[in-house]
Amino acid sequence: MTTKSLEIAHITIDGKEIDEKTPINKNEVITQMSEVLRMFNEKKPMFIKFYAVWCGHCKTIDGPWKQLIKSAKADSTIKGANIAIVEIESKVIGKELDKITSGTKNLKVDGFPTIGSITFENGKAEFKAYSGERSTNEMLSVVKELAKGKQSGGKQSGGKQSGGSRRRRVKRTRKSKRSIKSKRITKRKRHTKRKHI
Asked: What is the pLDDT of residues 88-131, one digit of tens each?
């Protein structure tokens, strides 16, 4: 069944909100992964968020994300557009979701939250990471661009992920390892030159 209007999905392992206590209102959002796969197969553009219940950044963005959904439903241009707003809990990431992640260019969930747009160009899915402010208005502007059929809106980039601080620490660590290695090589060169002189 093809739905040519705004669809909202919230996929979790236990049907609960991020607080792990409040049940998700199934009358307001789609809660089945099979429905998200249907949207993907129908090449429906998505503004998507991958989150973890233990992540502080994810808890902080939960309020603006819920407000984003309310604002999108109230906006007539978004409400009638063939797009989806989707959030997926980390515990769900597995075989079913692999059909989306493996079939989408630039989509790699290695930090939380990972937020961005999945769009389809020439029939191929591409993920554009969102790196703007995590406020309702900033995210809403990206959703509006998606509703207009534009490929990139707001602050998005093809390869950059929007995940938390783990990624930055990894980059710093790699950099520091390189500088330590180059210092060792320089010391060895000096040492061997002294021997031969």
From this structure: 999 987 767 788 888 888 888 889 999 999 999 888 999 999 99
Residue-wise pLDDT tens digits, 37-48: 999 999 999 999
Residue 86, both tokens: 């989707």
109 and 25, same domain (yes or no): yes
Angle between helices 136-147 and 56-74 (to 10 degrees): 50
The verdict on 138 and 195 lying in the same domain is: no
DSSP state of 24: P
Which CATH number is 141's domain given? 3.40.30.10
How would you label 31-43 residue by residue, b for 16+ Cβ within 10 Å and e otherwise? bebebbebbbeee
Q: How far apart are CA 152 and CA 42, in angstroms?
A: 20
Q: Is 155 left (phi over 0), alpha (psi -120 to 50) or beta?
A: beta
Those residues whose C-beta lies under 8 Å from the C-beta of residue 65, and which sit 6 or more positions away, are: 49, 87, 139
Question: Which long-range CB contacts under 8 A does 102-105 form with residues at least 24 apart?
Answer: 103/40
